[in-house]
Amino acid sequence: MKLSHPETAAPADAATRRAIAPVVAYPPETLPAPDLALYRAARGGAEKVAEIVIAPRDAGCFEVPAGSFFRITCIEGPQVGDLNLWNAANLSERFYSGKTRALHGTHLSTGDRMWSSLPWMRPIATITADTLDWYGFDSFGGSVHDVIGTRCDPYTNRLLAGGTYHHCCHSNLTRALAEARNLAPAEAEALVHDVLNVFMCTGFVPETGQYFMKASPVRPGDYLEMFAEIDLLGSLSACPGGDCSTEHSSDTAACHPMLVEVFRPAAGALAGWHSPEPNSYDRSHGL
Fold first, then answer.
1. How is the chain split into domains, by residue range?
2. Residue of 235, 227, 226 whose CA lies nearest to 274
3. Does residue 62 contact residue 72 with C-beta atoms inside 8 Å?
4. Per-residue pLDDT tens for 77-88?
5. How many helices and strands in the chain, by DSSP H and E?
6. Which of 45, 59, 119, 140 is 20 to 30 A from 193 in CA distance terms?
7. Which of 22, 74, 67 is nearest to 268 (CA)?
């Protein structure tokens, strides 16, 4: 956070420096574009093959084979969810929120992709439908489905509020992964990573640059749907903040369950599609 009253006097050319136009750091024009028409055609005849209901203030894991779809739905009341994704066969390859943010922006929607960690760095999921795409950016600069927040966690909670709370999203995701893959808590925790904040409405305070949250516009029936580019293990936490209109990391907010469904396209519906290969950089690093 920058000081409201700087201690350093502005130089004579301060206005000139501030007036320099910005440039997009990672122009997306050369990124491989998803074939949304193919995906949507395949989705039309897809069969539901699995579902899991995520309990309030808890998390659950689910698997999505490459070439399948998964949908996260608000089913009872406004609720945000923290999503982790891993390569189902190699948990070291996981969602990389920072690079996804650099490539697509602070908030994701239809056509954006979730990219994996280095050295693999490939698209692992593509957003194919978003019933909140109408929201855009509001007058506060807020939008939904962010990749700027990390996840609520018991360490920050203790730092700011004291005490112990075990149902932060970080802990929920840790428990769910440990149970799904029979891992020790420390092993699972090391694999939990920064999230896609599904349905969460967030932005930055213009004056200070601080991360803010506000009441999610999600309502029962709204959903975010994705196409699995590789075999995925997912985990979703129904955040203890509920709609995140006031606070999280406590039992104060009204919280609701969330639904995850998996859909398998009909045989032959994805003719010509294949999972993206890992990044082709040779990892020599100039040595």
1. 49-264
2. 227
3. no
4. 999 999 999 999
5. 6, 13
6. 140
7. 67
Partners of residue 60 on adjacent β-strands: 236
Please spell the DSSP secondary structure of 5-49, one letter per residue: S-SSPPPTTHHHHHTSPP--SS-GGGSPPP-HHHHHHHHHT-EEE
Contacts 24+ apart (CB under 8 A), 244-248: 244/80, 244/200, 244/201, 244/202, 244/213, 244/214, 244/215, 244/216, 245/213, 245/214, 245/215, 245/216, 248/152, 248/168
The pair of three-digit structure tokens given for residue 262, joined into one six-digit string = 């998996």
Whole-angstrom distance, CA of residue 29 vs CA of residue 17:
28
**Residue 62: both structure tokens together:** 């689910």
- Tens-digit pLDDT string for the chain (287 aa): 677 788 999 999 999 999 999 999 999 889 989 999 999 999 999 999 999 999 999 999 999 999 999 999 999 999 999 999 999 999 999 999 999 999 999 999 999 999 999 999 999 999 999 999 999 999 999 999 999 999 999 999 999 989 899 999 999 999 999 999 999 999 999 999 999 999 999 999 998 899 999 999 999 999 999 999 999 999 999 999 999 999 888 899 999 999 999 999 999 999 999 999 999 999 999 99
Q: Is this structure's pTM higher than 0.90?
A: yes
CA dihedral of residues 211, 121, 191, 81 (deg, nearest 10)? 40
